Amino acid sequence: MEIVLIHYRILQKGGLETRLFNYAAEFRRRGHHLHILCAKIAPGAPALPAGVTATRLSPGLAPKPFRRLAFARKVARHLHHHRPDWSLSMGRTTGQDAVLAPANHAGFLRALGRRPRTVSDLLQHRLDQQAFQQSRHIFAASRMMRDELMELYGVSSDRISSLPPPVDPARFQPPADRVALRAQLGLAPERRAFLFVSTSHYRKGLDRLLAVFQALQDQPVDLYV
Q: Which of 57, 121, 216, 221 is the most buried (most CB within 10 A)?
């Protein structure tokens, strides 16, 4: 099966970039032919998994606010001419079979308590609308994201599945001696420890998490940020 993954920039950091490489490696492991469409490959970006190829679709001379829109149009043209068996976009493009929805701009603005007021806001909302309306299926990162897509973009529930980010078991495994590790970190053995790792705490929902743990003060749980 010929599969195309789509992402704007290939680089060595970021949750979506990690997800891209995890998916690429797993699809190859299952014997699929895999190709990546991108606008940029950053210097120092990790090598693609063996057998994975990439095509750069540069947005050209488009002004910075319009580059994602230019890339989305080039992706649509490329997929129309090449027609893989299945295509998945990690971001807001058009022409693909399915798209990930780790976030949406309308929900982001609502969480901040403000209305769209800039050119960037309008462009991002348009990219969202096109991606969500034109893809056959949408993989929302959470149930909350699924609900926002239905409420704010009018997407029907039968076109959405909740798909949390994957975990690479080759890299992340429970330690052989968890008791020793907890003692080393100073974690009380009788309490459950939750770790929140983020580069943008408010945008990633830390306020919601703090509210949850505030309500659990009488429970043996600890949150580490």
A: 57
Q: Is residue 58 part of a domain?
A: yes
* Residue 171, in any domain of the structure: no
pLDDT confidence bin for 36, thresholds 50/70/90: very high
For residues 197 and 217, what is the distance between their CA atoms, to the nearest angstrom? Answer: 21
> Which CATH number goes with the domain that contains 143?
3.40.50.2000
Residue 79 domain flag: yes
pTM of the model: 0.84
- For 55, phi then psi, to 5°, come to -125, 130
- Can you say whether the dihedral through the CA atoms of 107, 108, 111, 114 is positive or negative? negative
Q: List 41's β-bridge partners, or say none.
A: 10
C-alpha closest to that of 210 among 194, 190, 186: 194
CA distance linking residue 102 with residue 159, whole number of Å: 15
